[in-house]
């Protein structure tokens, strides 16, 4: 069972956030939390909070399954460009340079690596017949 968490309009450039997101892509949840906790980059704290939110979303969907038995991992994490705030900075000789303050949107999907329950396996067998 998958769980999704989204983070919109983070005031960090997408390129900087992708550096941190690439560290946890495909990792187990416990390892990903440890990586983000000790990563000094700016986006790590926000991604750690997002990962905790995704874990909480997964627990809400699967209240009957124990978190340790589920063997959760980061299935996908995407960092897309958000809105760009355009500002002007004074430049020499009466000119102005445009400053682009970038933001991003992050989508995190968790999945369980544990084998499926028996009910789901039985329904697939019925469809094959």
Automatic annotation (TrEMBL):
Keywords noted in UniProt: Ribonucleoprotein, Ribosomal protein, RNA-binding, rRNA-binding
Gene3D superfamilies linked: Ribosomal protein L22/L17
Keyword Magnesium: no
Residue ranges of the region described as Disordered: 104-129
Domain of life: Bacteria
One BP term from GO: translation
Bias (Basic and acidic residues): 117-129
A cellular component annotation (GO) from this entry: cytosolic large ribosomal subunit
InterPro entries xrefs: Ribosomal_uL22 (IPR001063), Ribosomal_uL22_bac/chlpt-type (IPR005727), Ribosomal_uL22_bac/org-type (IPR047867), Ribosomal_uL22_sf (IPR036394)
A Pfam family assignment: Ribosomal_L22
The keyword Ribonucleoprotein is annotated on this UniProt entry: yes
GO molecular function, one term: rRNA binding
Function (record text): The globular domain of the protein is located near the polypeptide exit tunnel on the outside of the subunit, while an extended beta-hairpin is found that lines the wall of the exit tunnel in the center of the 70S ribosome.
Oligomeric and partner information: Part of the 50S ribosomal subunit.
Family: Belongs to the universal ribosomal protein uL22 family.
Name this protein carries in UniProt: Large ribosomal subunit protein uL22
Organism in which the protein naturally occurs: Fulvivirga lutea
